[in-house]
């Protein structure tokens, strides 16, 4: 019996579909109108382009390429770079908290590119934030890549020293410098190179020499505001209009049933 009453109620509501559609349209227009009273938001952005030298790496799997891309992205959006950017902004008179930065900053991957975006009601602030952020990120990335190339060079030297160490036990006429008499010097050189490799590996921040990162598109001063969350406002207001219409229909049906003579 209860199931039948529920079905009857649903039929009564859906039979008034034109009310529901009208309520959603009115609500959508209301939400769209509200968006015009919101303060305009301006967006500035910069783009980093990443390339891989496959002559060094050979063929890479999709997972390996993704890991390389994520490594670059993690550096760009790292706390160290954000703190450095905020310090630069503070020196230029723009006081911005980390919380406010993370609320307004956007960070997205586009194939082999990373785009950073910042939105603010002040176009000059949006531009200066992206300028400081992109410059700090580019500086640290280029420095890390230099250490990655040094790391690769030291690893090549280490391979040569290890081969030299193996030749100390071979025929003396083929050993050249790699003789037992020079064993201590060879071992000391290996220890020094290993220390350098450990240091360069840390300063390379997980990047490798086959990577190349370029600040492909620099920040620019936004000329026009962006419409921010208009779709969400329209959808929310339309949904609210639908709920109000359903509530009114239910209230009218209940009133009509109560007013019927027993």
Properties at a glance:
262 residues; alpha+beta; four-stranded antiparallel sheet; 4 strands; elongated
Helix- and strand-based class?
alpha+beta
Unreliable segments of 5+ consecutive residues = none
Strand content: 5-15%
The oligomeric state of the chains shown is single chain
- Annotation, overall tally of beta strands: 4
What is the terminal-to-terminal distance? 19 Å
What is the residue-averaged pLDDT? 85
Computed Rg: 32 Å
The level of helicity is 55-70%
**How would you spell out the order of helices and strands?**
HHEHHHHEEHHHEH
How would a textbook summarize the main sheet?
4 strands, antiparallel
Strand arrangement in the largest pleated sheet? 2-3-1-4
Task: Indicate the overall shape.
Answer: elongated
Number of helices: 10
How would you characterize the overall build of this protein?
- This protein has 262 residues and is α+β, with helices and mostly antiparallel strands.
- The protein has a domain at 42-217.
- It is built from 10 helices and 4 strands, in the order H-H-E-H-H-H-H-E-E-H-H-H-E-H.
- The chain has helices at 2-14, 17-35, 54-57, 62-76, 79-91, 98-104, 123-167, 172-175, 183-203, 230-259; strands spanning 42-52, 105-110, 113-120, 211-217.
- A 4-stranded antiparallel sheet has the order 2-3-1-4.
- The radius of gyration is 32 Å and the shape is elongated.
- The model has no long low-confidence stretch (mean pLDDT 85).
């Amino acid at each position: 019996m209860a199931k039948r009453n529920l079905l009857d109620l649903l039929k009564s509501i859906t039979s008034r579909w034109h009310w529901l559609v009208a309520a959603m349209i009115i609500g959508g227009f209301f939400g769209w109108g509200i968006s015009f009273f919101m303060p305009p938001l301006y967006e500035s952005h910069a783009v980093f382009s990443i390339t891989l030298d496959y002559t060094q790496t050979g063929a890479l799997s999709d997972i390996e390429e993704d890991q390389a891309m994520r490594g670059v992205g993690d550096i760009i959006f790292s706390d160290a770079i954000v703190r450095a950017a905020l310090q630069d902004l503070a020196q230029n008179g723009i006081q911005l908290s980390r919380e406010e930065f993370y609320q307004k900053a956007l960070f997205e991957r586009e194939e082999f590119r990373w785009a950073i975006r910042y939105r603010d009601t002040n176009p000059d602030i949006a531009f200066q934030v992206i300028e400081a952020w992109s410059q700090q990120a580019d500086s640290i990335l280029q420095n890390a890549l230099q250490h990655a190339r040094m790391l690769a060079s030291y690893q090549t030297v280490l391979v040569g020293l290890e081969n030299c160490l193996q030749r100390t036990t071979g025929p003396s006429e083929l050993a050249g410098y790699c003789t037992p008499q020079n064993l201590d010097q060879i071992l000391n050189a290996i220890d020094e190179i290993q220390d350098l490799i450990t240091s360069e590996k840390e300063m390379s921040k997980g990047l490798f020499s086959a990577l190349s990162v370029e600040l492909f598109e620099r920040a620019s001063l936004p000329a026009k505001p962006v419409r921010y969350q208009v779709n969400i406002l329209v959808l929310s207001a339309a949904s609210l209009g639908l709920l109000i219409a359903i509530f009114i229909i239910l209230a009218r049906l209940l009133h009509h049933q109560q007013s019927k003579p027993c």
